[in-house]
Design brief:
It is built from three helices and no strands. The protein is mainly α and 137 residues long.
């Protein structure tokens, strides 16, 4: 074969290689963007839960102050069995509920932190054309 007859074949192989490299580059870019989007969503969810958690902690602090005030007033009045009073019991139950809510929110944060990035879903165009790529294992 002459140099001229080899040239068109080399160009064809070069174009296929370029297409393959471009597809790999786009796939890597798509995967990176998917990961970045997932991390941003995780961060947003964690921040929102931490805001809610801070609000719960403020309510707990306020309930502690209210409880202390009730106990002090009852003590000053010379009451016995302060913990048997209905208002004290209600406040203790409220505190228990707030603490449980705070623990649930803290658990949610931990669960979000260990979430794995979901598998990338095929685009609607890939599903419609039947060119969906098989999952890599």
């Amino acid at each position: 074969m002459t140099e001229e007859s080899k040239k068109p074949q080399d160009e064809g192989q070069g174009e296929e290689g370029l297409v393959e490299k471009t597809e790999k580059w786009w796939e890597a870019t798509r995967k990176t963007l998917n990961q970045a989007g997932h991390k941003a969503t995780q961060y947003k969810r964690i921040v929102q839960i931490k805001i809610d958690l801070a609000s719960i902690h403020k309510k707990i602090d306020s309930a502690h102050g209210d409880l202390g005030k009730l106990v002090d007033e009852a003590h000053d009045a010379g009451e016995a069995n302060i913990l048997e009073r209905d208002d004290v019991k209600r406040l203790l139950e409220k505190l228990d509920g707030l603490k449980q809510t705070a623990a649930t929110l803290e658990h949610e944060i931990e669960m979000i932190k260990v979430e794995h990035i979901p598998e990338e879903q095929p685009s609607p165009a890939d599903r419609d054309s039947g060119t969906e790529k098989p999952k890599e294992q």
